[in-house]
Amino acid sequence: MKTRLWIILMLSVLLSGKSVGKNYIRINQLGYLPKTVKVAVILSEENIPLNSFQIYDFFTRQKVFDGNKITSCGNYGQFTTTYRLDFTSFTKPGSYYIKVGVDESPVFRLSDGVYNQTADFLLRYMREQRSGYNPVLKDSCHTQDGYIIYQPEKEGQHIDVSGGWHDASDYLQYVTTSANATYQLLFAYEQHPAAFNDLYQANGLPGANGTPDILDEALWGVRWLMKMNPADSILYNQLADDRDHAGFRPPTKDNADYGKGKERPVYFCTGKPQGLFKHQNRTTGIASTAGKYASVFALASKIFQNRDTGLSTLLLHKAKAAYEFGKVHPGVCQTAPCKSPYFYEEDNWTDDMELAAVQLYKTTGNRQYLTDAIDFGRQEPVTPWMGADTARHYQWYPFVNLGHYLLATDKKNGAHKEFISNLKKGIDNVARKAANSPFLYGIPNIWCSNNLVAAMLTQCHLYNKLTGDHSYLEMEAALRDWLFGCNPWGKCMIVGLPEWGDYPRNPHSAISKELKIRIDGGLVDGPVYNSIYSNLKGLVLLHPDQYVKFQTSRVVYHDDLGDYSTNEPTMDGTASLSYYFSSLQNNENPDSHNKEVQGAICRFNPNKKVIYLSFSGHQFANEGAMIEQTLKKHKIKANFFFTGDFYRNPAFKTLIHQLYKDGHYLGPHSGQHPLYADWNKRDSLLIDFPRFVDDLNDNYEAMKQDGINPDKARIFLPPYEWYNQTISNWCQGLGVQLINFTPGTYSNADYTIPSEKNYRTSDFIVNKIKEAEQSDPHGLNGAVLLMHIGADPHRTDLLCQRLDDIIRYLQYKGYRFERFSSYSNDF
Questions:
Q1: Cβ atoms < 10 Å from Cβ of 241
Q2: Which listed residue, of 425, 536, 626, 824, carries a Cα 20 to 30 Å from 433's Cα?
Q3: Are 451 and 573 in contact (CB under 8 A)?
């Protein structure tokens, strides 16, 4: 009964992070890197003194750490007291929860790999945002764009500018944000090329094409920008306008009326204010747009120099031309409003020209560009939002000045220390604002505040990389944790990340609402000042506010479809995290060659001549004694995965204890062998997260009764060997690694019986194992060769009787057999 109550309590914590008492413990729900700053925040409705907290192992429920490094941060909103709980000194990898009195945090992981694949995860949203051919929808939209406006000699003429990305949940497309997003993707790849996979084609559909996926996505942006800059002196800044705001509808059914059928207007850069109806922007020049074009083209030219020489040459020409055009037309080129007063009110432009100049210098080596870059950079030493209380919408954009960083890396230019100092000043400004916050949050809560968080994370990381100055590591960690739930609302700010986290379920998105597609990877806008939220037009919550307790008179956030101010994902904000997430990935993982299916490892490193001989069991164990003796004869260590029911069966106790004594790996196979996913529709779950955790805990509880430490048994074989990506993600969140058999050997067909259509004899299976070994270029390197420890009595042709022959054959072929002990704490 006590165990059952604990499981129920843990499930409530896992799902909602709610407290039993009046305290709310906020953590990074994705997890923590062992060797970085690690802090949780507690919000209390009571005036409680707090002197200690504890960390417990999720699987063993044993206390593993006593913490007393606690900082009181005063009140916050409706909460009387707040504390920062620092457990940086605790570094052991595993799955844990924090306990303060009777209150417990959600479960979290400590692992070097918690951020692995997160940078690629962001690309899911970028692909979903594609205009033209959209791989998520497997259909095309906006293929007839567009017709020219504000260019007298070509007014109304058609120009092909299809492609690119929709800006957010509407279908507008801006050079301002698209160029920044493209540069961010290119920059992330340039800095961390090993962080990105090649799992998708150039059109966004699954399938490797020899190009890292982030470059495929960046090229989608580059090619659209090339269309929007068709000649040296012709620059367009915007495709469509706010007539787009015609209600939720899929992009393939966009019915916004621009007066020319399915064509949308393309805004020519004039250097003067624009706005077709009541409202106009405050454009003063073209340099902000020209600089963005130039920086993207220059970096892309450099990156693609050895991949596509012709493209690289063309891009370099366009970069130089756009830069020179910007010098002739200084000033800012803002996006154009139409029916509503909202537009991107960018006021600064020297930062764009600085980045363009220094990137051209990095690409060409021409020192005149370096001189120009330093001059432009000195005109805006610190990005003005850093340290400000507020700002207009996108007033100082991009939110991070990567030109400062590039100048700071060049020790030969005589100004690198100056630009390092500029980076530091910006961080200092934010740090001062953060000093009194329990979340060390010094970001102004303007519209798209999460984009500012991403910018500050990037600047902190680059500054630390340049200088080794650790002064801001705690603030950086706090902002990182903020995005993953260590915030007043306990809300992760990226849709679908992590799968087990409390991420936005109701984002302001037509794709999500109309097509019921989860828009994975999208960074939502984030909290805003109540003064902004209260004065926006057309903003109405569709559901009662679930976060009333955590709102303040100053700042609000809503996970509500109706709130476009806090819960709408943005393309540029998402792309801007690609550098930072890739910097946190463990790209030196020795298991990077592992092959996965639906998130489970089905084959370990195919370059190593190792086989993981494995056996599963639930109802039967009639082959167990022979298997145990055969393995002992050959001095082989193997892997056994048993259900909770198997571990509890008195008839199997002797076998279990002997296998454990022999040194084999004994792991989980579920509590009662439920089917996780529909056989015919794999994405359809037949189990929910509470039941999944309940069943897995049941398995571990049974193992503990046999003296098996759950902390040493984190490799999990799913029941029926059938699962999906969601199950794999749930396992990841609990610090468990899902595995499955390597396809093609048919060894796992040893459970079939003669009366079934899928019956396979032992001779058939042995021959298939040999065929797989001979036909695969890697043989059976890294294979998980799975069999069963028992079979239905109707099967008399037992594979265990052939196990000796199988082992001898594979040993003759040069394979060695290993158990999973070396992987038990690596996931």
A1: 25
A2: 536
A3: yes
Strand ranges inside 179-249, DSSP E: 236-239
Average pLDDT of the residues in 604-611: 90
Helices (H) and strands (E) in the chain, counts: 23, 26
How much of the chain is in helix, strand and coil states, percent to nearest 5?
A: 40, 15, 45
CA 399 to CA 453: how far, in whole Å? 9
Of 799, 326, 757, 398, which Cα lies nearest the Cα of 575? 398
Q: What's the pLDDT at 711? A: 83
Distance from C-alpha of 813 to C-alpha of 815, rounded to nearest angstrom: 6
Handedness of CA 70, 105, 483, 532 (dihedral sign): negative
**164 Cβ partners below 8 Å, 6+ apart?**
130, 131, 132, 173, 178, 220, 221, 224, 225, 228, 239
C-alpha span between 264 and 172 (Å, rounded): 10
CA distance 224 to 270: 20
DSSP characters over 477-508: HHHHHHHBT-STT--BSBTTBSTTS---SS-S
Please say whether the beta carbons of 285 and 273 come within 8 A.
no
Q: What is the residue-averaged pLDDT of the chain?
A: 92
63 C-beta neighbours (distance < 10 Å), count: 11
- The whole-angstrom separation of Cα 43 and Cα 687 is 33
Beta strand 555-556 with 595-597: parallel, antiparallel or unpaired? unpaired
pLDDT digits 0-9 by tens, 534-590: 988 888 899 999 999 999 999 999 999 999 999 999 999 999 999 999 999 986 444
Say what the pTM is.
0.88
**Best CA proximity match to 659, nearest among 632, 684, 681:** 632
| 188 Cα distance to chain centroid | 14
Reduced to 3 states, what is the DSSP secondary structure of residue 169? coil
The Cα–Cα gap between 241 and 46 comes to 50
* Six-digit token string for 444: 């102004």
Looking up tokens 């892309």 gives 300
Instruction: Kindly state the percentage of the chain with pLDDT values over 90.
Output: 85
How many other C-beta atoms lie within 10 A of the C-beta of residue 455? 27
pLDDT digits (tens, 9 = 90+) for 462-497: 999 999 999 999 999 999 999 999 999 999 999 999
